[in-house]
User: Which sequence fits this backbone?
């Protein structure tokens, strides 16, 4: 495969253009400088196997690695900060920044600055004044080294000193950060908070390690246990199965009750909360072990009664209530300012979380707990804090308090903080809590230790920490009382014991996959390299112009409607007007995406760190308005200010990481027979005596029969257009339902499947995306097969919402009736992530069969635990199409060879190669396919060869290059038999003749690079695409359908906007409705005609275009190109820069193939776009 790297010459040319083109707008100039720096850093750090996150750390690393002088290093970091800004640079600043950038490129590539650039830049660095002030409240810095009581750091601010010294210990001011000695690493980023600066010494009151790595506050608090708080408790808790107990259900009810009571205006009805809560958590109620309805109702009534009293105390509605509040010495708070479950991200402290209750003026902060507090019940004060609150709850509240202080710059006496134990009457349960600085600092210290441990494991491997997961190590407090030995220690052992009883292969598998998951989490939080990955820290590290360019933010939105989705839900549906977002803005949002909605001040840039965040999902997206459904509706509509602008950005969540880790732990706890099967240590079984219950299809019957006879697993390869969902999956489901005594009767189906019988077997249907699950649901509905779907209505097509569990059981008010309905419904459908988050279904239903569509897009850790819980599974996919998105490099996710494993590794990971696990980024589907090939078995693999999408003239190239094994054939469908395209109008020119005569066409584009235009835009190709669209629209006439006729595929989102502009100029409304998207977004779609714009004009961009490739049987399989071509039914039109594309073997072969077939537009000079 080609490695086409960007050259120093190309980057130097960019620097020259920065100086030589006075017409560049300031923002464009700054962005060009920023992009050039990103490209240079990417080249410099790509093989370092490190996650750097932002440019600050990348630049710092490269300056050290290349031996750049201190003065030049300061100048380079200054240039980096300027490139992040939208403010125009002075002529002098521009020259000094250009010099710094040129020197940096020179050092990274090891070449001299060219003469033609040297004459344009200053020969000496920018002069600095001594004693520049720095921001004392928060200083971001990078660790250089440390000894004694000082850390040497480089700070991320304009400063003149070569280095600063961070003082770790100051006894006079009660400062002691010496615990950091054990976790400091060179290159580690720190936030120094509330600093005293006497240059060059900085004395911070608080130090936060790797602040871009946000940790959930509740996760930190949970680790404060009776046996201490070891850093690995954080990971231990992630391995635990999801709890579903009567206590957790009561806690969920109590939270909902508080929401309902706050603004019920004294008319609260507990039964309404119970009904709503029961409907929303129906599956949890049905699967809760030893659930006692009577006790639950009694406990819920007590919680509701206490909460009503608490609300009247905090937010009195009458004069007498206000008087009672005053007698308690409690302040009065404005009920209109009460806000429920707002979210916060705090980069200063490196934490995030969601508060139960507060007021928008930040005068009140309440954390609610519904469980028992033995200190209250025993009237026993905790000697450490001289109060009744429990330590983990205290920690949680103090961290929320710290967030408010640092995000909104509040004084210590501004916020009143309360712990609410709603099981107890207010005089006992509503606790006034003081800010306890010692415990707060201890919590931040613990946060730093767990982050350092996570980074270490992600870098060095989970195997280095494996032996630490024992009760003896985790019990740092040395607790040995009755409660610990009777209850706590067995809970720890339930998680840790399986880790130490694994075979060598199982141990290698678990450790390697854990490392992969944790490394992926680290990159998703802090990024690997700025500009090349997507991370949650983009929320504050990415400049606004770059967010706009990436389509990752909506700004200047205003609320036009606030609605309740249903009675009692609160105002949870917010409609906002969308003004013009800029001429090139293209939103990178989809319906169902999780988002943050928040306000910001006029004339200021939006910043999630300075705002109260409302979490929600996008319900509707239009050009002029957008609808957000909030996760937590607000009872008070006035909470949503209408006079301030709003912004929307992508939300963050650790749910995927937690699900993957639970899946891996579930796998190692599975029966040995199942573990052996999935790791290739047992031969899958087959029962050849089984026969089909009926005839389905002449071609498919053999595959369906072999899938039925397979007793453990079956792998179905479904290339594009082979009907894997509409036919193969459908027939497999029907055969499984027909085979057994539990087959539903016609009467039960007509009744909606609600008969209370126990079927012989149940089927679990899963896929990776909600879109694919919608397709499964469509097949089931069309086939008349009853089913239930797990998921959210906002990520589900409206047609299938009645099948969601909470909707389907609306006429089943009794718990037992709901339970029998779920048991009686044989088919359950959902995404793999939803099933991972709802494992309780497996306690209610036993699944004889699971069928997973799109399985080539699912990483092993996201699936292997689920497969351990079913008798048999069928995986359907095509590993030659695009796989799951993985942020770490292919090298980092790889499995070492024998030689690599012998270089001092704790565990021999190379044994994983023996089971065809060569890279963690590959799907289980692909690994098992390779394993079956390795074992020379064919009976457990089926291949769908009849494709009904591509005309044979289009299918020939992917068949020749990508599907040599599969040998695809046409069905044939009617359009596959058509000898000619149905373009009957007279031709306007030779290009029209070409369109009429050929189904595979390549149109060479010319170079059109401009200095002030992104490399991700190709104006010439945009013109070609628009002209092709005009011609196709003309040929189709009244037959044109924007959803079916034509689609455009491009590699970059920026090119989409360019094509859209050209379409607008045509003035053809139907063309404005067509889909223009990236290859990744087009997977699963099809059109009569596909137009593919390669877009690139630089050799180094080939790596991105062809980066998703692998070799099979000596042939290169380019997954992106395969997906692009196989979207087309009748015609495939491509345009690209032939000179650049010739540098790639597959693209060169593609152009030769099209030329051989006569579809290459030779007469380039006759047509100038």
Assistant:
């Amino acid at each position: 495969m080609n490695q086409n790297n960007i050259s120093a010459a190309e980057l130097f040319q960019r620097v020259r253009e920065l100086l030589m083109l006075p017409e560049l707008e300031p923002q464009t100039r700054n962005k060009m400088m920023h992009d050039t720096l990103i490209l240079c850093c990417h080249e410099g750090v790509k093989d370092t196997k490190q996650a750097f996150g932002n440019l600050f750390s990348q630049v710092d690393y490269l300056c050290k690695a290349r031996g750049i002088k201190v003065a030049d290093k300061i100048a380079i970091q200054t240039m980096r900060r300027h490139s992040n800004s939208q403010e125009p640079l002075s002529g002098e600043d521009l020259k000094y920044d250009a010099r710094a950038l040129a020197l940096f490129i020179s050092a990274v590539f090891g070449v001299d600055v060219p003469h033609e650039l040297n004459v344009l830049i200053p020969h000496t660095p920018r002069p600095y004044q001594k004693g520049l002030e720095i921001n004392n409240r928060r200083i971001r810095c990078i660790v250089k080294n440390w000894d004694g009581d000082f850390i040497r750091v480089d700070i991320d601010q304009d400063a003149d000193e070569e280095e600063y010294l961070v003082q770790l210990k100051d006894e006079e001011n009660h400062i002691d950060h010496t615990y950091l000695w054990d976790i400091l690493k060179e290159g580690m980023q720190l936030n120094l908070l509330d600093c005293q600066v006497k240059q060059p010494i900085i004395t911070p009151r608080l130090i936060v390690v790797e602040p871009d790595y946000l940790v959930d506050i509740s996760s930190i608090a949970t680790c404060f246990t009776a046996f201490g708080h070891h850093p690995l408790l954080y990971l231990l808790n992630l391995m635990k199965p999801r709890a579903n107990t009567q206590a957790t259900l009561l806690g969920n009810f109590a939270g909902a009750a508080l929401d309902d009571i706050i603004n019920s205006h004294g008319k609260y009805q507990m039964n309404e909360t119970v009904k709503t809560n029961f409907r929303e958590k129906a599956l949890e109620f049905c699967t809760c072990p030893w659930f006692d309805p009577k006790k639950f109702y009694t406990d819920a009534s007590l919680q509701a009664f206490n909460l009503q009293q608490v609300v009247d105390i905090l937010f009195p509605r009458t004069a007498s209530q206000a008087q009672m509040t005053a007698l308690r010495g409690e302040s009065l708070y404005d009920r209109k300012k009460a806000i429920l479950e707002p979210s916060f991200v705090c980069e200063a402290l490196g934490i995030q979380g969601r508060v139960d209750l507060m007021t928008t003026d930040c005068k009140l902060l309440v954390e609610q707990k519904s469980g028992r507090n033995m200190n209250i019940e025993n009237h026993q004060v905790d000697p450490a804090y001289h109060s009744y609150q429990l330590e983990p709850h205290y920690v949680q509240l103090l961290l929320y308090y710290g967030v408010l202080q640092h995000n909104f710059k509040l004084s210590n006496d501004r916020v009143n903080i309360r712990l609410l134990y709603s099981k107890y009457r207010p005089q006992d349960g509503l606790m006034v809590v003081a800010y306890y600085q010692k415990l707060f600092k201890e919590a931040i210290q613990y946060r730093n230790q767990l982050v350092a441990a996570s980074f270490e494991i992600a870098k060095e491997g989970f195997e280095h920490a494996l032996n630490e997961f024992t009760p003896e190590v985790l019990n740092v407090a040395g607790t040995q009382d009755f409660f610990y030995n009777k209850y706590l220690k067995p809970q720890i052992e339930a998680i840790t014991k399986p880790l130490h009883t694994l075979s060598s292969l199982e141990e290698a598998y678990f450790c390697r996959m854990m490392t992969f998951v944790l490394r992926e989490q680290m990159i998703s939080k802090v990024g690997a390299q700025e500009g090349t990955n997507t991370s949650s820290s983009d929320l504050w590290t990415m400049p606004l112009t770059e967010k706009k360019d990436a389509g990752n933010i909506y700004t200047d939105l205003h609320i036009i409607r606030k609605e309740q989705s249903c009675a009692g839900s609160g105002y949870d549906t917010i409609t906002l007007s969308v003004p013009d977002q800029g001429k090139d803005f293209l939103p990178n949002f989809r319906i169902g995406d999780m988002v943050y909605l928040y306000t910001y001040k006029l004339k200021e840039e939006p910043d999630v760190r300075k705002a109260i965040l409302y979490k929600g999902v996008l319900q509707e997206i239009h050009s002029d308005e957008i609808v957000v459904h909030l996760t937590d509706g607000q009872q008070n509509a006035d909470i949503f200010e209408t006079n301030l602008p709003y912004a929307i950005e992508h939300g963050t969540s650790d749910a995927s990481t937690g699900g993957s880790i639970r899946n891996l732990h579930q796998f190692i706890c599975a029966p040995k027979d199942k573990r052996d099967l999935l790791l290739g240590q047992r031969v899958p079984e087959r029962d050849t005596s089984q026969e089909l219950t009926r005839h389905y299809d002449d071609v498919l019957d053999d595959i369906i029969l072999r899938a039925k006879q397979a007793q453990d697993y079956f792998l179905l390869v479904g290339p594009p257009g082979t009907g894997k969902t509409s036919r193969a999956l459908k027939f497999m489901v029907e055969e499984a339902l027909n085979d057994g005594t539990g087959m539903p009767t016609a009467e039960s189906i007509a009744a909606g499947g609600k008969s209370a019988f126990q079927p012989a077997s149940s089927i679990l249907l899963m896929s990776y995306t909600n879109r694919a699950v919608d397709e499964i649901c469509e097949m089931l509905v069309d086939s008349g097969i009853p089913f239930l779907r797990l998921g959210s209505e906002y990520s589900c097509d409206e047609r299938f919402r009645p099948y969601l569990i909470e909707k389907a059981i609306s006429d089943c008010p009794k718990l037992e009736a709901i339970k029998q309905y779920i048991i009686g419904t044989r088919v359950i459908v959902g995404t793999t992530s939803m099933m991972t988050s709802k494992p309780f279904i497996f306690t209610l239903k036993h699944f004889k069969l699971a069928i997973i569509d799109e399985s080539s897009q699912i990483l092993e850790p996201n699936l292997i635990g689920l497969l351990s819980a079913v008798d048999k599974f069928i995986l359907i996919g095509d590993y030659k199409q695009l796989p799951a998105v993985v942020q770490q490099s292919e090298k980092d996710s790889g499995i070492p060879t024998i030689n690599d494993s012998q270089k001092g590794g704790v565990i021999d990971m190379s044994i994983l190669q023996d089971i065809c696990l060569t890279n963690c980024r590959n799907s289980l589907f692909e690994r098992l396919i390779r394993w079956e090939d390795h074992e020379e078995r064919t009976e457990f693999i089926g291949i769908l060869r009849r494709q009904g999408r591509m005309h044979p003239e289009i299918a020939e190239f992917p068949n020749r290059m990508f599907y040599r094994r599969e040998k695809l054939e046409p069905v044939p469908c009617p359009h596959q038999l058509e000898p000619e395209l149905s373009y009957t109008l007279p031709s306007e020119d030779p290009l029209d003749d070409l369109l009429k005569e050929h189904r595979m066409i390549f149109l060479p584009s010319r170079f059109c690079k401009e200095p002030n235009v992104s490399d991700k835009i190709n104006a010439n190709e945009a013109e070609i695409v628009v002209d092709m669209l005009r011609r196709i629209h003309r040929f189709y006439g009244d037959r044109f359908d924007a959803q079916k006729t034509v689609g455009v595929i491009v590699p970059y989102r920026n090119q989409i906007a360019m094509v859209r502009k050209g379409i607008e100029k045509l003035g053809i409304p139907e063309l404005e409705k067509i889909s223009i998207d990236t290859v990744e977004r087009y997977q699963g779609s099809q059109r009569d005609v596909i137009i593919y714009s390669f877009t690139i004009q630089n050799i180094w961009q080939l790596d991105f275009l062809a980066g998703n490739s692998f070799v099979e049987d000596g042939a290169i399989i380019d997954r992106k190109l395969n997906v692009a071509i196989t979207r087309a039914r009748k015609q495939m039109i491509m345009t690209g820069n032939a000179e650049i594309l010739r540098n790639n073997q597959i693209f060169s072969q593609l152009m030769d193939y099209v030329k051989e077939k006569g579809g290459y537009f030779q007469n380039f000079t006759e047509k100038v776009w």
The first helix runs from residue 8 to 20. The first strand starts at residue 138 and ends at 147. The chain has a mean pLDDT of 91. Residues 694-886 form a domain with the Rossmann fold fold (CATH 3.40.50.300).
